Structure of DUF4142 domain-containing protein:
Amino acid sequence: MKKIFLGLAFSAAITFQACQSADKKSSTTKDSVSGDTTMVNGVHVTGSESTEASLDEEGATFLKKAAAGGIMEVEAAKIALTNAKSADVKNFAQQMLTDHTKANKELKELAAKKKIITPDALPAEDQIHVDAMKKMTGTEFDKHYIAMMVTDHEKTVKLFEQGKQNKDTDLKTWATKTLNVIEGHTAKAKEIALAMK
């Protein structure tokens, strides 16, 4: 009887110890996982920054449209560097690649700060367009690319003029600065388009 009692007491002690350590484990796991952190656009954002006012709907829409447009400019420029015939078109494409890569990076940082998720890839219809451009070369490509750049940049100027009006200071500052660059691109694209006629 004494042996049975000792066996039960020992068994109870082991069970109690196991439960204790399981509780410690689960509370440790909970603590490390429940920390108020999120990933926005691949950037680690801590909960302490959540006091920052987020953008209004117009601002969020602006960032999403600008991100998609920026990705398109970079992808099209990469193709132009390979498929274009004209040195002017290639030089323009290199400028697009440099300026829009920089602007896209700044946009991602701003979006992360404002907790807005922006696209990382092209919408399906733009991807179809990019794939079609890959099959063009020479003068045909040059004309298509420059016509596209004129049209796209005119639309982008209008978009960024709206961004300039946003009440968020950070967004307004970035949109204003970037608009100056985009207006320069528009003028250059029109100049190249005229020279091709």
Notes: The first strand starts at residue 37 and ends at 40. DSSP finds six helices and two strands in the chain. The radius of gyration is 28 Å.
